Amino acid sequence: MARSTITSKTKDLISDDGSVLVSLIKGEQTQISVTINWLTSLSGCIITPKVVEANNTNYPTLPTQVHQSNPNIRLLEILYNSGSGLAVDTNASTSGSANNSNTFSLVFPEDLITQGGSAAAGQGDYNVQPDINKSVYGFLGVEIKDTGVGALQQIYKPFRGLVEVRFSPTEV
Asked: Distance between CA atoms of 44 and 34, rounded to whole angstroms?
């Protein structure tokens, strides 16, 4: 059997189900449940879900870049079962400390693209807002760091993709 060239992309040793699309309506707040099948407990893990404003200037073409000047960067809140009920982690990058299951929910807030604050600090309104025939987008990524230290720590990126925000007449 002949060997393939070193630059051949015949087999990827790490694969996923592809990128995701989360489609929201401006002003909508929703939760999306996530199950991490390869772990039985998220206890001690650090979960960081982040949405970064995309360059929304070439509509209807989907964005391929982050907004160039002061993009809106948002850490999402996480809901998880703490054993004594539902808990909310507003400091998303420390979630999982009390989560003894492998599930959590991402909270996409109603002010995802209109949160106010300082644009220089990566907060504030998206530079482009949705219109009747125009959606705006952000890039979504979730990172999970397990409890290992140094070379023994694994950092997973279970999914990434686009968040689409569409126009809503109730937000005018």
From this structure: 17
Question: Identity (one letter) of the amino acid at 8?
Answer: S
The answer to whether residue 13 sits within a structural domain is no
Number of alpha carbons in the 13 Å side-chain half-sphere of residue 120: 0
Tens digits of residue pLDDT in 48-86: 999 999 999 888 899 999 998 888 889 898 888 766 666
Domain membership flag for residue 139: yes
* Domain encompassing residue 70: 26-171
Q: What is the pTM of this model?
A: 0.84
* Total structural domains within the chain: 1
Residue 136 tokens read as: 């705006």
DSSP string, the chain: -PPPPTT--S--SS--S--EEEEEETT--EEEEEE-TT-S--TT-EEEEEEEEB--SSTTSPP-SB-SSS--EEEPEEEEE-SSSEEEESSGGGBTTT--SSEEEEEE-TTSSB--S-GGGT-SB-SS--BTTB-EEEEEEEEEE-S--GGG--EEEEEEEEEEEE--GGG-
